[in-house]
Write a structure and sequence with these properties.
single chain, about 400 residues, ten-stranded mixed sheet, about 25% strand, globular
Length: about 400
């Protein structure tokens, strides 16, 4: 049996305490280089000290992490940015921006006449370098928000309300913080909320590969006197000729604490990584936590709004060019979602993107007047980053850490 999604079904997911506990999707992915189902080489992310994050199961199967939960959230959140020229009635969330710095325009009279060292302060029309709140890794709890005084004032009050059980203020300022999870570790509340949308990509039954390269420089073309002078200068400057491109440089081993050789043979753990062959499936798992959603608020308006945003994020066809050497695509045309009950078998659900978008836009309507009241003009949504406040943050005590200079 397949559940046809209607507004009544969606409302039930948001409000019915006895309703399903989650929605779940498994998406099959394939490398763009894969032909006729043959396994392709993909490059997982690398981490300090360990290289690829590969686990070996008890049966010997090796499973590689291809994109982490945090990374997936950072790829999904920007879908809520408004398109250029899009009016407020089409927004799903307030479009808060933060000015990180100002750069000289190099075009005004003041810039053309100013001395180079004074050019930054002389500009009469500086270019504002901005970032969207949707680009911040820690969302409303990010250090950039904490270092933007006026925005931090709003967010601080919102976290205090959340601590007292009211998710409304944070919904009105930074709703995606509730969709993708947030931890006010740098603020005064320490409030921590789980993700409503969780996504991760793994590759199964992987075989790690290694790479090797050789950089050939101009070194062989130099005479002995030139080589001697360069070697002398490199020694005096405590640098390596190969680092400056003036000597040949093989690339066989990574910069790691591991020994390069073991029992007279190259240590594979120290070799330069060359991707993995995924002989098994490459799979993206997405889950929408309906228990956590209903636990955020007893207000139906808030629940429906957050469900709409969560489903928009969960069903978005994001680009799967994850990094150099890891370009994936969706293997199938349609996705099979399942409604997960408290007990019994999961049931297939047809989540149509058109119905979800309509639901999300309708659910956002009660919040639009609040955005208009708080930010009458678009420029009111722009806040200033303060370097002085960022410096204060460095000395501030966070969870498990003593403040700098404290007794």
């Amino acid at each position: 049996m397949t559940i046809e999604v209607t507004d009544k079904v969606l409302d039930g997911w948001a409000t019915d305490e006895a309703g399903p506990v989650a929605l779940h999707l498994k998406q099959k992915l394939v490398p763009v280089e894969s032909v006729n189902g043959e396994p392709g080489v993909i490059f997982p992310p690398t981490y300090a000290d360990i290289g690829y994050n590969i686990d070996t199961l008890s049966d010997g199967t090796r499973v590689a992490s291809i994109d982490s939960v945090g990374s997936q959230a950072n790829r999904l959140e920007p879908i809520f940015k408004a398109q250029p020229g899009q009016n407020r009635d089409q927004w799903l969330a307030p479009q808060i921006q933060i000015v990180l710095r100002k750069e000289p325009c190099n075009e005004c009279d003041a810039c053309r006449k100013a001395e180079p060292k004074k050019k930054k302060g002389a500009c009469t029309n500086p270019r504002k370098v901005r970032c969207s709140i949707f680009d911040l890794a820690h969302r409303a709890a990010d250090a950039v928000v904490q270092s933007s005084p006026k925005l931090n004032e709003l967010v601080k009050k919102a976290f205090q309300s959340l601590q007292n059980g009211d998710a409304g203020p944070l919904c009105a300022v930074g709703p995606t913080s509730l969709v993708f999870g947030v931890w006010d570790s740098r603020g005064g509340t320490g409030e921590k909320r789980p993700r409503l949308v969780r996504s991760i990509i793994r590759a199964w039954d992987v075989e790690p590969l290694h790479a090797a390269a050789q950089f050939n420089s101009v070194w062989k073309a130099l005479d002995e006197e030139q080589k001697a002078e360069l070697e002398k200068e490199a020694k005096a400057k405590k640098t390596e000729l190969s680092e400056k491109g003036l000597a040949d440089a093989p690339a066989v081993f990574r910069k790691t604490k591991l020994p390069q050789y073991h029992d007279g043979s190259p240590n594979p753990e120290a070799r330069v990584l060359g991707g993995v062959i995924a002989r098994g499936r490459i799979e993206r798992e997405v889950a929408v936590n309906l228990v956590a959603l209903r636990g955020l608020s007893s207000t139906e308006v808030i629940r429906k709004y957050l469900l709409g945003l969560s489903l928009m994020a969960a069903t978005a066809d994001i680009e799967l060019f994850l990094r150099e050497g890891c370009h994936l695509r969706y293997a199938e045309q349609g996705d099979t979602w399942y409604e997960v009950p408290r007990r019994g078998e999961s049931m297939e659900v047809k989540l149509g993107p058109t119905a979800i978008e309509k639901y999300a836009r309708t659910a956002a309507e009660p919040f639009r007047p609040k955005w208009k009241e708080k930010w009458p003009n678009d420029e009111d949504l722009v806040y200033e980053f303060s370097l002085a406040k960022a410096k204060e943050l460095l000395a501030k005590k966070t969870d498990g850490q003593e403040a700098v200079g404290s007794a």
